[in-house]
Amino acid sequence: MALSCPLNRYLLLMAQEHLEFRLPEIKSLLSLFGGQFTTSQETYGKSPFWILSIPSEDIARNLMKRTVCAKSIFELWGHGRSPEELYRSLKNYPVEKMIPYLHSDSTYKIKIHTFNKTLTQEEKVKRIDALEFLPFEGKVNLKKPQHVFSILEDYGLNPNCIPENPHNIYFGRWIADGQRELIESYSVKKRHFIGNTSMDAGLSFIMANHGKVKENDIVFDPFVGTGGLLIASAHFGAYVYGTDIDYNTVHGVGKASRKNQKWRGPDENIRANLRQYGLEKYYLDVLVSDASKPCWRKGTYFDAVITDPPYGIREATRRTGSQKEIPKGIDKCPESHVPVSLSYHLSDMFFDLLNFAAETLVLGGRLVYWLPVYTPEYTEEMVPWHPCLQLISNCEQKLSSHTSRRLITMEKVKTFEDRDQYSHLLSDQILPYQGHNSFREKYFSGVTKRIAKEEKSSQE
Fold first, then answer.
1. What are 23-61's pLDDT values in tens digits?
2. Is there a contact between 366 and 210 (Cβ–Cβ < 8 Å)?
3. What is the residue-averaged pLDDT of the chain?
4. Which phi and psi angles does 383 have, rounded to 5°?
5. What SS3 class is residue 366?
6. Do 172 and 57 form a contact (C-beta atoms < 8 A)?
7. pLDDT at residue 452 above 60?
8. What pairing do the DSSP bridges indicate for beta strands 107-115 and 139-140?
9. What domains appear along the chain, each with residue ranges and CATH number?
10. Where does the tRNA (guanine(10)-N(2))-methyltransferase TRMT11 N-terminal domain start and stop, copy by copy (predicted)?
11. pLDDT band at 271 (very low <50, low <70, confident <90, very high)
């Protein structure tokens, strides 16, 4: 039986990396531009072929102007599990939808895309010739066609067991490509100012998309580092701001992170990074500040808070304070007090971050951050929560056999009240997450065991 193709159906060709991040990115962008997913579209798994219902071609094009997880999008004309099913599906597609792209004054070409199999030129020509029943009246132009059509064949995910025939075959009109080239053009390897933990460019853009960053937004990073996350948001037209406790990083002084370079140069700083990409006009400022003691007046300032807090591995978790207990009843430190650097437990850091986001985000604004976890002990109950914030997505990126970090996206759904600041302390969820205060010890414990195992293997 032929698979009919409803109107406004599109085929999305996805990249095969960061698989868990793909669905939240596409959902967030569709929501940003006025589209949405249906419940039947939740089961894509690892497949690179996704069929979406999108209200209009304009929304499809806007989606592709932002996504780094998708390669291309096509207006879907036909779909089948065999060539015969595909042809029946194409014959059922409304001719009036085809005619604008097939008339005699138009030029076109047909491309073949296969996943997990390589076809010979002869096989490709045979597949194209089989579409002669379509009402093509224009001329073929292989160099600069007005319209591009594609046959896409899916041979499954197992490279060690490639079937003779495809699992699915699609035919559609190419609409637009995604923004995959941003990963290379914004590569950290080419960046003017980097640090030990500068965020990968692709992940930076994914985070901005999860945060639904758009033009004229104000985006804040409380653990700004060298500003990699600010760059991604500024690329999408947002004004960016940040803080960090490390004076040397904020001011671009001290030892360099690059190999074969001892000290940072006179113009190695966050502003210079944005200037490198022509984004300096979106740079508001960066301050030396302690994230545990926000310096903001009460109010809603930010459309998104996007950040990568330190985990205590490459960068220390630090806050300012005093080794001496300040007497009760005294709100401020004595004038003679000199702040010192203290340890900042992960559980305290993330609850401070959630409180800060709940207080300073606009309603509907998003918090996007990385949560490090010790994989053998991880459960969903360990993800910090807040009464003003709703969990949108939780995606894993493996760091090692025993550790990973999870990209958490939350949306502000309730106006912050003073009583919300400590409500999380009453939750049972705080107890399991406090176990992650020893993440650093567990991380290095696993590293030590792995090194010992590798040394033992090399001696045998």
1. 999 999 999 998 877 645 555 678 999 999 999 999 999
2. yes
3. 86
4. -75, 120
5. strand
6. no
7. no
8. parallel
9. 8-178 (3.30.2130.30), 182-320+339-438 (3.40.50.150)
10. 9-180
11. very high
